[in-house]
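To: structure desk
From: M.T.
Subject: fold request, one chain
Message: Could you run this one when you get a chance? Sequence is below, nothing fancy, just the single chain.
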Amino acid sequence: MRVLIAFDKFKDSVAAAGACAIAARAIAAVRPGWDVDPCPLSDGGEGFAEILTRAAGGKMTRIPATGPRGGRVEAAFGMVSVDGIPPGARALMRPAESGPVAVVEMAAASGLALLEPGLRDPMRASSVGTGELLRAAAAAGAGTILLGVGGSATHDLGLGAVGALGVRFSGAAGEALDPLVPADWPFLRSIKGRVPEGFPPILIACDVNNPLLGPRGALAVYGRQKGLRPADEASLEAGTARVAAMVCGQFGRPNDLVNLPGAGAAGGIAFGLMAVAGARLLPGFPLVSAWLDLDRRLEAADMVITGEGRFDDSSLSGKGPGSVVRRALALGKLVHVFAGEVSLSAGVPGLIAHAVTPPGMGLAEALARAADLLSESIGRAVSEA
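Reply: Done. Structure tokens follow.
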């Protein structure tokens, strides 16, 4: 029996690679003769850079960077040769012909997981650390930069990031607004400077199709989970529209860029990098799938094990584990999903879903015991297979 193990992260508890390792050990304990193929997944958030870099035989580089609320964090980006990227992924990316590809994840320097709950507030969070990672990748010789934008703490339209690349923001008296966070947007009067000429093209891996503004926009959909207070919502939405218009005017972009599907990704960093640096959006999971050679690995498997922290209807709408489920079922594979919580409005024929958190267990305890709960649940399921 060959088992493909393709987990995404269990938010705030177990990383994707850790979940795959837990599953491999649990299977070996009860089915020592089975072959396992661990394949950690990423939606562009935590683990994106390392997962893709390791898969392509590249190298990670660690640097000090500015965290989402200031202070210093240690963050990393990957460097891979273009030849190490599978052809399907290269075709999606169309990287520059010269220089390696840098793989950067926003979550490493500007991620929500870097902040304790009491410090989560997108009014005061900045993406400047992500810009520092982009700058370091360019300085290291990258010909193309691939940026994953999941798990962000920010709603600063990526202006912190472009500020780290050379754009300057100032108030009425010429005072520098550095880094520019939404709480300071009312004081913004001037935008000057540009990303350096010859800066590597930036590709943004993104499965989010939200525009920047409106009822499906970045703020309406993601603001509260980043710690935004309801009292700040109306003023921040108005400020987002005003600042976005200023950015479009300064850099000669059409104002309807705010309506582009995906412009609202990661607190609008997709909008900001498109407007200021000419970044291009790529479909995230198809890219990751091609990069990890997932179709071939699915074909070779007899059983597929996948999952994430919460598996619900949205998981089946383009997210990593849901896409794995759909592809595996279409190939006639035996498919198990393991998640902290399973909440599907209807059954999926052929899918065996396991909620690893026992009924009545509180969230704090479930997060603390997530590794053991996952291991026990997989061990039971596999021993009965």
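Reply (cont.): The CA atoms of residues 120 and 225 lie 9 Å apart. Let me know if you need anything else for the meeting.
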